[in-house]
């Protein structure tokens, strides 16, 4: 796009999602819409360990595909990354995407170097980072940064999968939480950064907005948070000039 629109002004914004919920949502999407269940196979739900949930069996089938090395290798026409990124490289997807090409096709697992890369990109290139779980907070901050009127969002009850309303199986986190370790750090960074921006725009967004209960404490999803890689980041202003 930058080559096609050379010289055009631009800014980067993004919204993060709870990593484990995103992983569960991807299973729901593939199960609902993909004829071959995103290469997990139509019969994946009948395979796996006794008592294992369908969501967990889905990722077990995909891991087996990855371990066998039988993943699709060539990108289909019109995509911006090889399709095995979607079909078999399931760990830390947000880290992979935010870091860029050096992480896209890296074998499982991606590393702390890729986490640093993703955080550096967020820090240096993205003027706004919101989260899906704090959508109203995010929308208010973004509207203030872009100097646009803030209007409450219109909720779409016809979500693609409805996974956010489904109960996540009890075995899903214990079985696949290790696939979100680095993404948890990214998500914690996003929440902390949103806290700072909410304080800055508190007059417009309120001191106790929709996500205010998260403010002023460490976000448990991030574990050690991003302090381990903070020394690699060059701090910048998060506010529109």
TrEMBL record:
Positions of the UniProt region annotated as Disordered: 208-241
InterPro entries in alphabetical order: P-loop_NTPase
Gene3D superfamilies: P-loop containing nucleotide triphosphate hydrolases
Protein name from the UniProt record: Protein-tyrosine sulfotransferase
């Amino acid at each position: 796009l930058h080559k096609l629109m050379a010289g055009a002004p631009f800014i980067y914004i993004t919204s993060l999602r709870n990593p484990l919920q995103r992983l569960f949502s991807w299973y729901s999407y593939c199960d609902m819409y993909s004829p071959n269940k995103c290469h997990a196979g139509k019969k994946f739900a009948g395979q796996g360990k006794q008592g294992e949930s369908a969501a967990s069996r889905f990722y077990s089938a995909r891991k087996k595909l990855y371990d066998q090395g039988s993943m699709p290798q060539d990108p289909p026409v019109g995509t911006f990354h090889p399709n095995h990124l979607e079909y078999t490289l399931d760990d830390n997807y947000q880290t992979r995407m935010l870091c860029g090409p050096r992480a896209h096709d890296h074998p499982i697992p991606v590393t702390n170097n890729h986490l640093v890369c993703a955080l550096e990109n967020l820090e240096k290139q993205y003027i706004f980072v919101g989260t899906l779980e704090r959508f109203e907070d995010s929308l208010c901050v973004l509207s203030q940064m872009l100097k646009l009127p803030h209007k409450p969002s219109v909720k779409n009850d016809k979500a693609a999968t409805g996974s956010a309303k489904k109960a996540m199986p009890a075995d899903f986190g214990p079985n696949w939480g290790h696939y979100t370790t680095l993404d948890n750090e990214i998500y914690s960074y996003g929440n902390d950064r949103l806290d700072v921006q909410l304080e800055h725009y508190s007059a417009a967004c309120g001191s106790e907005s929709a996500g205010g209960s998260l403010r002023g404490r460490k976000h448990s999803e991030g574990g050690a948070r991003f302090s381990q890689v903070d020394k690699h980041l060059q701090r910048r202003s998060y506010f529109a000039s």
